[in-house]
Design goal:
The chain crosses the membrane at residues 33-50, 57-78, 84-103. It is found in: Cell membrane. Keywords: Cell membrane, Membrane, Transmembrane, Transmembrane helix. With 108 residues, the chain is an all-alpha fold. Helix content is 78%, strand content 0%. The protein has helices spanning 2-22, 29-49, 55-77, 84-102. Helix 1 runs antiparallel to helix 2, helix 1 packs across helix 3 and helix 3 (55-77) packs antiparallel against helix 4.
Length: 108
């Protein structure tokens, strides 16, 4: 259950980042409010997951989901540049997160 919370928290982090971009420096009301709601929800879910998971691994997974998800959506729907180097770097982030989990990053 805790890992599901981390995954959902990571998805909320992606939404938070996209709203941050859409807020245009917090000058647009709805994206600014979305940022606030998604940020509080993301951190809240991560906090719940940390009751049973190791902080380093859980945080790395959360950040990884947020970073990769935001970068991919940026490339797919927001017109961010796509390059082989970016895709390779994102693959390394994913490999690192998987490696942390394989190294025993479960709950205690």
């Amino acid at each position: 259950m805790a890992w599901i919370l981390v995954i959902v928290a990571g998805l909320f982090e992606v939404a938070m980042a996209l709203c941050l971009k859409g807020s245009k420096g917090f000058t647009e009301l709805l994206p600014s409010l979305g940022f606030l709601v998604f940020a509080v929800t993301s951190f809240g879910l991560l906090n719940l997951a940390l009751k049973t998971l190791e902080v380093g691994t859980a945080y790395a997974v959360w950040v990884g989901i947020g970073a990769v998800g935001t970068a991919v959506l940026g490339m797919l729907v927001m017109g961010d540049d796509v390059s082989a180097v970016k895709i390779g770097a994102l693959s390394l982030i994913i490999a690192g997160v998987v490696g942390l989990n394989l190294a025993g990053g479960g709950g205690h």
